[in-house]
Amino acid sequence: MNQESRKRGRARYLKIRGQRWRVIFGRPPRNYCQGLCDRDRRTIWIAKGADDPIATLIHELLHACFWDLDESAVEEAEDALIKGLELVS
Ligand SMILES: [Zn+2]
To answer: Are 59 and 47 in contact (CB under 8 A)?
Structure first.
């Protein structure tokens, strides 16, 4: 574990549309947010204290997959996915 991951949290890796992304479960660079998707660094952060970490992860993964979608489209897709997942839980 390097110094950054000790400070920021545990990192995992995930291939998204053919590119390797890092997913960090820890404090995002901007403390006020629950999650963050940084396209340039191909890194997603999910705050440890996120109210709903699954919804936050889905939201940030949608940003990573579809950069052309605006925030409202991502929120609508997140909502549809969460409701769909609730059907099978
Ligand atoms: Zn967003």
So the answer is: no
